Fold this sequence. Notes:
Blueprint: E1 3-8, E2 11-16, E3 21-26, E4 29-30, E5 40-44, E6 50-54, E7 60-66, E8 69-75, E9 82-89, E10 94-101, E11 109-113, E12 117-120, E13 124-127, E14 133-135, H1 140-144, E15 160-161, E16 169-173, E17 178-184, E18 192-199, E19 202-210, E20 220-221, E21 226-232, H2 235-246, H3 260-263, E22 267-272, H4 295-305, E23 309-314, H5 334-346, E24 350-354, E25 359-364, H6 372-377, E26 404-408, H7 414-429, E27 434-438, H8 462-479, E28 483-485, E29 512-513, H9 516-521, H10 546-557, E30 563-566, E31 572-573, H11 587-603, H12 605-608, E32 612-614, E33 620-621, E34 624-628, E35 634-638, E36 640-646, E37 652-658, E38 664-668, E39 671-675, E40 679-684
Parallel strand pairs: 22-23, 22-30, 23-24, 24-27, 27-28
Antiparallel strand pairs: 1-2, 2-3, 3-4, 5-6, 5-11, 7-8, 8-9, 9-10, 10-20, 10-21, 11-19, 12-19, 13-14, 13-16, 14-29, 15-18, 16-17, 17-21, 18-19, 25-26, 30-31, 32-36, 33-38, 34-35, 36-37, 37-40, 38-39
Helix pairs in contact: 7-8, 10-11
Amino acid sequence: MKEFVLTCPHGTLTCDDRGRIAGLRHNGVETAAPAEEAFLLGFRDGKRDPVILTGADFAACSAGEREGGIRFTYSGNAKGLEVGIDVSATEEGFEFRPEVRNIPDDFPLEWIDAPAVCVRKEGLLLWPRCEGVLIDGSDRREDYGPWHVAGFVDTFPGGFYPGHCQMQFLCHYDESGEGLYFEAADRSHTLKCVDFAPAGENRRLSLQTFCGGRVKDGVYRSPFCCLLRGLTGDWRDGCAIYRDRIASDPVLPPKGGYRPMMRRSPVILIYPVQGEGKDCGVMTSNVFYPYPEALPVVEGLAEKLQSPVMSLLMHWEGTAPWAPPYVWPPLGGEALLAEFRDRLHEKGNFLGVYCSGTAWTQTSSINDYSCEKKFEEEHLVDEMIRGPHGEIRAVSCNAPKAQRIGFDMCMARDWCRDTVKREIARISAAGVDYIQFFDQNIGGRFLPCYAPDHGHPPLPGVWQTEAMKRLYGESVAETGALLGAEAAAALPYIAELPFSDLRSNFNWPYGEPVPAYEFVFHEYTVNFSGNQCGLNYHLDLEGAPVNMLYRIAYGFSAGDLLSAVLKDKGRIHWGWGVPWSVPEPGQEDVISLIANLNRVRREHPEFLLEGRMEKPCAKIECGNTFILRKNGEKIVIPEVLSCQWRSPAGKRALVLTNYQPHKTEVAVDGRGIVLEPLNAAVIEI
Length: 685
């Protein structure tokens, strides 16, 4: 079998005579596993059913030399299709640009996944899902939610970009410190699924790219290249490559453009005004309602924390909890909320509200709220996202025993966009400081729509990113509101969604969360450490209670603003969704840790607000402890967390965080440093 070899400063690429990647060698180490296929293509047949073709479905493959590389051409397909993949060696690595020709009108191209890159299961894979997660060699992903080809209303467990995945790259490395980096260098930010899939004994890295609107005269030519190159180091080194490569992307906001509120570093206090900490079931008003009833708790915590705080309200809507898109007026009326807002502001505190994004509610599963009549009379079925067969379904929180019954709106439609903007304008006009309107639009996502009569292409594609960018941009321009989403905003939406509720907790079923997002984007945006929803399904919270202190320290080390979920009587709870009947963690240690870390954060904004995260240059040694998964698996974690920052002026600092309730010693390059309990030390380098 003939092989084709290309070399560049970042490795040696070998392809076989079918154009499949046979290996990628970097610093003498083989970092890729042989790929089973050269590419995958997704089509829709005459019945709009999916058809997947691979390189094996083409009888012939020819290879021809071209300047700087090779072109592989595939022909001999029953549909008359022809595929070409240009492979080039550059200073940056190996670039792949695919093309598909002779695409029949009755066999439209839905997506393309090229090239197919495989890695061994051994080692660690950085998946940029929900701010970042390291995947080890286990099959935990398959146990929790097996991989499948992304498509209509998929949210679980896929990696839609821009959405669940906020970045367009993956990297893999092993104990040798050698690995590979794989990126879609796409400045149009086309809808993709950034993911990994089983491939025999190995794993295939996927940059599944949706092509809707980009096939012209039967031809699709990728408007961007995929970059494959060798990597030395770990996930931080992969993030550093990505950060450097996207730095000139015009979609990014200016560095350091934080709102004044963010500079004051408030602690985010998250609590409901109805119910007892769950999003479903019968809800009545609680100890935090009417809104001013929470003031003794809010002001008391502000005093203990020696910090401004934000009351971030859940279940405040006057319609029904989690019943989008309509939320206004607030429960109890505008005057009552305004009184609470004013009294918060008098003490230098802030008001925020959760909403539920761009879904449509037919009926609430919590109370008797219904929009069925409006839906029918205005024929709003025309405004909902549709599947390839015209079907409409819902995704998040839809079930008789969940929050609602409904659908998802197509945000390329004027009616949907105007409806959302109108609700945002009403909340903003009421003087609310922060509107997490796009909760459940994870990362700012817009789920695929296949409607042929919506005025957009009938297949998912870049038009979806453009539609959401328009919605966010118009909302901010017209109201000046500070908006956010569930999970950090994906790259193209950072400018409009600069403050969001992080979701690293969503990653525990798959692996170990790491702050990859903060490593790349901290200079552009700052978020808060989130409500930790769903954590009780994955971690044994009470079995290893240090997890609470660890999670607070993790958010601080990542450069995030800190948050706390409150239960009755204002006690800090494990996280959102944990019933109030569950005993809360020890309050004194939790409050001390938050207060101490937030003080350090305010004292060092040049690092922890405005700084760029770096890979620590010192060798740091300390003891270990553990937290528990629900299945009893121990997750070993260091007793001291470390992070390194560079200020805009070029100063560097190592930040060491001791989240233990006792003094702890850590060795930095062999030098012993004693850290105070529940505190952090900033050591300028």
